[in-house]
Amino acid sequence: MEAWSSLLGELTQKAYFLEAMAFVEAERRAGKVIYPPQEDIFAAFELSTPENTKVVVLGQDPYHGPNQAHGLSFSVRKGNKIPPSLRNIYKELASDIPSFSVPEHGDLTNWAEQGVLLLNSVLTVEQGQAHSHKNIGWHKFTDDIIYALSEQFSDLVFILWGGPAQKKEKLINADKHFILKGVHPSPLSAHRGFFGCKHFSRTNEYLRSVNKQRIDWQL
């Protein structure tokens, strides 16, 4: 997270951040299984810098099953079953990007290394308990990150899937950035407008229009 210290340094001293970290530490000490592992909580910030960030994909909270969450929204490490939401993301990609071939793994690290910030609104979760950490302060932290990115940079693409992600739209200066909104890729909602949204090609069209390197979505 060192590369992000100028943007995040102040935030990591705020009460909400310290309280969230203390809560997670106490839960682990109490024997609860928390995902992702401690060393992966901030993985989204380890693979890029603020300056090379081009796209922000906002998820909800980490996967809550074993060996899934590793700090990048929607991603799972190689060797693990591809979750349903990510399968739907791949399905839309295959429809939207003619050259895209659906991979046999769910590791999105390659996107992160190209400047796609795969950020969850909430950064931790208890095993088997979806949304269990939604009220411990992480949303304030990610609110501040999104606001800071919006204020300090320009021509970013913000991809907001689902209601919780779309609530963060108010933090983004729409005059400076490109905002893509849609339903969540979950099997519960994907058929209500995620399929056919073409957010991946639209992202690259925008990046090209502002003279930025497009994302190679192939994994």
Strand order of the largest sheet: 3-2-5-6
What is the number of helices?
7
Number of DSSP E strands: 6
> If you compute it from the alpha carbons, what radius of gyration comes out, rounded to the nearest whole angstrom?
17 Å
Order of helices and strands: HHEEHHEEHEHEH
**Shape, please?**
globular
Rounded average pLDDT:
96
**How much helix is in the residues?**
25-40%
Poorly predicted runs:
none
Which structural class should the secondary elements be placed in?
alpha/beta
Please sum up the structure shown.
Helix content is 31%, strand content 11%.
Tell me what the structure shows.
The protein has helices spanning about 5-10, 15-30, 85-95, 110-115, 140-150, 165, 200-210, and strands spanning about 35, 55-60, 115-120, 125, 155-160, 180. The chain has about 220 residues and is an alpha/beta fold. Strand 5 (about 155-160), helix 6 (about 165) and strand 6 (about 180) form a beta-alpha-beta unit. The chain is globular and about 50 Å long.
Task: List key phrases describing it.
alpha/beta; 219 residues; globular; two-stranded antiparallel sheet; 4-stranded parallel beta sheet
Which helices and strands appear, and what pairs or packs with what?
Layout: H1 5-8, H2 15-29, E1 34-35, E2 55-59, H3 84-96, H4 109-113, E3 116-120, E4 125-126, H5 138-152, E5 157-161, H6 163-166, E6 178-182, H7 199-209
Parallel strand pairs: 2-3, 2-5, 5-6
Antiparallel strand pairs: 1-4
